[in-house]
Amino acid sequence: MKKAGLIIATMMMSLGVVRAHELTPQQKTQLKSVFPEATSFSEKHVKLTDSQIALLAKKLQSKLGPKDRNVTLYMAQGASESLGNAIYFPAKDEDGDPIQGVIGLGMDGKVKKVMIFSHHKDYSVAQETFLGQFGGKTANPEDWHAGHTVTLVQGQESNSTAAMKAIKKAVMLAEMAKSSAGKAEKIQESGSKEMHEKSGHHDHHEHEETK
User: Fold this and answer.
1) What would the DSSP string read from start to end of 33-79?
2) pLDDT above 80 (res 117)
3) pLDDT confidence tier of residue 211, bands split at 50, 70 and 90
4) Sheet holding 98-106: strands in order across?
5) What is the DSSP letter of 136?
6) For residue 107, what are the CA distances in angstroms to 37, 75, 102?
7) Phi and psi for 115 in degrees, rounded to 5?
8) Are 95 and 104 in contact (CB under 8 A)?
9) Within a 13 Å sphere around the CA of 210, how many CA atoms are in the beta-carbon half?
């Protein structure tokens, strides 16, 4: 049984799923901005494989760095059901200043809401008039064409394009990480069931021997 448990743990680690620490009050406030109906959040770290990174780079048509391999998802839980996942995203404006926000994704993988909370300049990219259009978008590359499926902010095309690309990248990373986490949970569930069955068989064998 100990060997089976070790095998499950090893497979979980190979898929890169690690549950993390308690969230800070600031994080909870930020996450509630995209999941106001959530009663709790749990943090999960997923490490993507080389093949997953290569596939994402191809879809995004851009290079991905070592940091992109490690994805953090925040699972939103409602009163009686799972609501979806949230993921933070970083970007830079045309002056090189940081833009940071968070995306709420439903269980179906569609964007529920996007919020930008760390950009202190008076830019329209942080307003709902721009961010609201991302609602309903998925990891499908066809959802993300500037000037077609995404309307850029007039006079702020550079900043709105940067924000769009960052949001698109985060959505795709979240989808890939969610898939990996799902595989890990199935392995854990299957392994736990196997261990339970072996435990029952072992107890039955011992009972027969004592007769």
Assistant:
1) TT-TT-SEEEEEEEEPPHHHHHHHHHHHTS---GGGGEEEEEEEE-S
2) yes
3) low
4) 17-19, 40-47, 70-77, 82-92, 98-106, 111-116
5) T
6) 14, 10, 16
7) -130, 135
8) no
9) 6
